[in-house]
Amino acid sequence: KATVSVLNWFRVTNVEMSRPIVDHMKTKVVGATRWLRLETIFYRDARGREAAWDRCVRTTKASETSTDAVAIMAVLRYDAADPARDKIACVKQYRPPIDAFTLELPAGLIDKGETPAVAAQREFKQETGFTGEVVSVSPAVPLTPGLTNETVAVATLEVDMTLPANQKPKAVLEGDEAGRGLETLLLPRLGFMDALHDAERGGLKVFGMVYTLAMGMALAAKQPPHVDVSPPPLAAAAGSDTIPLVDLPDFALHSTPNPALIDAVVSALRCSGFLLVRAPSALPEPLLAGALRAATDYLERPGNPNVMQHPTDPKVYSMLESEAERRAVGSRVLMEYTAGLERVKAALLRCIALGLGMEEGFFTALHAGNNNALRLLRYPPGTEETGNRCKEHSDYGSLTLLLADGVSGLEAFVEGRWAPVPYVPGALVVNIGSLMAQWTRGALQATLHRVAGPASPQATTPAATLLRAVAMPRTSLAFFADPDPDVKTALGDGPAEGRGDDMTVAQYIAWRSGGTGAVRSGVAYTENERARVEPKL
Length: 537
Hints:
With 537 residues, the chain is α+β, with helices and mostly antiparallel strands. The protein has helices at 6-16, 116-128, 192-201, 208-222, 259-271, 285-299, 323-328, 332-355, 362-366, 434-439, 463-470, 505-513, 527-533, and strands at 21-22, 28-32, 36-44, 50-58, 69-77, 87-95, 100-104, 107-109, 133-137, 141-142, 151-160, 183-188, 205-206, 245-247, 274-278, 308-309, 316-320, 371-379, 390-393, 399-404, 410-414, 417-420, 428-432, 449-451, 474-482. It has 13 helices and 25 strands.
């Protein structure tokens, strides 16, 4: 029988096997109290035989499929620029069934008519006194399915500790919560597992969900191999000969890179102008996934005045050119993501300088002012007649660090043809801008690139892949690392290209971009770059 995906396995299994099923008409109530009911249920197993099972049910449960409660995973943010200060909110309380104090996540029952998100904010405020913003809510999940049909939704909250409302939190406990000694414990996000071990040594019993959370955080920090059983249409599964994958170890983010790393980075940028970079200590995969979600949410926010339709391409975007604009998005994840990008940018600039025989700090000194821009991009689905979803262009400044969601179409003009840019989960696409190419006298390439569609000319991405990709929306985040605005485009005796040799970086970018706002008349690529690809365009 042909191999099937995990999702298809469930579909096939349900058809080909006799699925066990409960006959709720035969349920017997063994006993009940105000809050709980003990039942014996009867089901028919996969062999067609009738069997019985005892279970516990909340008397407040509205139906077999309703969600009973919400658990709250809240991250308290004290400083967007310093994630090491983050805390995770937990609660300590006495639990009579195990005759012990436990360490748990804040949680509570969902009231009639409430959504899990509303219940999460209410319960969190009551138990801790803090006010938080719901970032996500999981589907209803069982906790102990061998014992009960109870299900819980897990809500993720972010708590801005700079808000006045969170300066003097006051919990409003209900029922017997005060008598059971419920109190809030704030544990460090970094070193969360160690904090749980300390709590255990202090006599607390740690709730299983909290331990699972800590284990997941520890695994994410170590970046185990990524396994995706149902990926979107991807450009490729790994780096290629011309666009290789390079891992940036932690030491390279704060000290001099070693010769092997320098050679790997500079060789790729000499060859194709493109590189895939993975830096898990600065940009772990969960942070990248969160940044993609935050960008998508912001771009799809109804009536958002900061989202513009691109004048030529079928996409919308928002250009965040200052820290204030990035903060205004209201996403701590994006701020943490940007801080990680700064570290990766500096490491790459050091590699480039050393690889070209310059002083290590030559290029970082030209970028001391963090003259960066973050562009959030969202491509709507198209049709088989869709051409380029993003036109052919080169980038303007020094480096671009691109985060994409894995939907195919990104191509670079390498070795005389349009070639797919590989996709690797957890990796950024890095490419050289025109100014860096000019400053290195062409030693590093500012390569033209595009997001191709099914009707794009000379595309080498398989047609079937582009057809699948164009049926999907596509999100990406482009981080443009430009030199400081007052730096001259001509360094030393090197001439500036196209508009004379007496332009500042700010003037050059204004010329290339064609202004600001929705109406632009930008220069997609320079004359030298056009000459390299003219026959192909």
